[in-house]
Amino acid sequence: MKQILFLAVFQAIRLQDNAWANLYERLVMARCPYDEKTQSHVGKKRVIGRVAGQMDRSDLRAAQTRRRAALESSSRTRPTSADAL
User: Fold this and answer.
1) Angle subtended at Cα 60 by Cα 13 and Cα 12, rounded to the nearest 5 degrees
2) Is 36 in a helix, a strand, or coil?
């Protein structure tokens, strides 16, 4: 599961026109120190882990919301004993 989520984050940040890519870029600038020798930011994997965790939590929340909506709609359409009378 972790490897799949890690690859999903890589794919999301590669596209660069979505909220996950914007979050990644913002966090890299804020949390990763810049190395003059390599001309890049160091420690990007921590940021990828952070984005993956947030992506996982948001997917979990979305699934819970869908589950609640399905339960509410099924309880509304289910006939009750009062309806039968």
Assistant:
1) 10
2) coil
